[in-house]
Amino acid sequence: MRSIRPSFTVRRGRGARRRTSPLPAAVALAAALALTATACDSGDTEAGGEASATSATGDDKISIPDDIKDRLKEHGIDIDKWKDGAWKNWDKDDWLREAEDFVNPIIEDLWDPDRMREAEEPDKDVDAGDISGDAGVTDPTPAPVEAQAVQAAYHDSVPTAGKVFFDSPEGTMVCSATVVADPANPGKSNLVWTAGHCVHAGKDGGWYRNIAFVPSYNNDAMETVELESASREEVAPYGVWWGDWVQTSDQWIEQGGATGGDGASYDFAVIHVTPEEGSGGKSLEEMVGSALPVDFDAPAVQEVDSITATGYPAAPPFDGQKLFQCQDQPGRLSLTKADPTMYRIGCTMTGGSSGGGWVATGSDGKPALVSNTSIGPVESGWLAGPRLGAEAKGVFDEVSGKFAGQ
What we know:
Elements: E1 9-11, H1 25-30, E2 35-37, E3 51-54, E4 61-62, H2 66-73, H3 79-82, E5 106-108, H4 113-118, E6 125-126, E7 148-149, H5 154-157, E8 161-168, E9 171-180, E10 191-194, E11 209-215, H6 224-227, H7 232-235, E12 241-248, H8 250-255, E13 269-275, H9 284-288, E14 307-311, E15 324-328, E16 331-333, E17 342-347, E18 357-361, E19 367-372, E20 376-377, E21 381-385, H10 390-402
Parallel strand pairs: 1-5, 6-20
Antiparallel strand pairs: 2-3, 3-4, 7-15, 8-9, 8-11, 9-10, 10-13, 11-12, 12-13, 14-15, 14-18, 16-17, 17-21, 18-19
């Protein structure tokens, strides 16, 4: 039996495939109990078996009080049904939308190598009609910059990079993400930076489900055919880390969409993660050995000589299994006069690179995360990301403060 952990846990059978408000007290209280369930299934996406909570010693079973279960149901979580596949119900009435409603029970072994490999990139494209040159300041479209493969091992080259996996109504999805430093927990950060559209559907939906981060995914740059027989440890050498809290901007929640530029200037998110399995007490930063500071006072576009964008592009001609980078001097992109001007660079990376970190020399003269991939044209050639400012800092500070000293 497993010991109590600060998140829900539902175990799958090994053969299975396929806004600023604090976490409500009911959810927080129930999160002190770990749920385990074993299952043997035939390879479909639903795990069977009975769930039970265990004591810290693992010798005695602890029943979850009915009042806690009832309060969890108010947030769309019926533990018995969720573990049996109820998370796949995307009925709009049950799709959690508001910031304070985010819950993400761990389902152990859900993200196996096959599911990770087959995850698709989410749509977030724009076309010429989404860009109004006279609405704000927009520089000429940059020349495409050919994405360069990152040298393996990725942990040696870009130790903070990784993938975010999640489930949406369209199926299993994937984005890119970055381990970022947490001033409230120096040297022990459990924070990950990505795009808002990688965690929340925007104005027409709610929070995605089964959100998990895998640092240094496919660390040795194995070919796709090799990945088909790779173990989970080879695919995710630094473990699978589940989001136990996520925040994005109010603007993304209220305006964002799967296509077009709405909400793109505020298309960022911060995930606080916890390990699916034991990490020996190490934080994510300690596990990967690095975390990038975030610069919320980054230089204006004209003052930035170079930005490097990193990600796992998944749309053709890429397959999402390898890490790439683009380096270019940014220009300005304005989608509406009311929204902040975005950074834009030439880059041939495609969908799947969304959420990946943009690194430049920060205001203190050192490398820092200054943006993330948000949008690109239907036909690849450039990428744009939000310039991080007060709104981004507010989101970050809320998540950092919530877990201060933990």
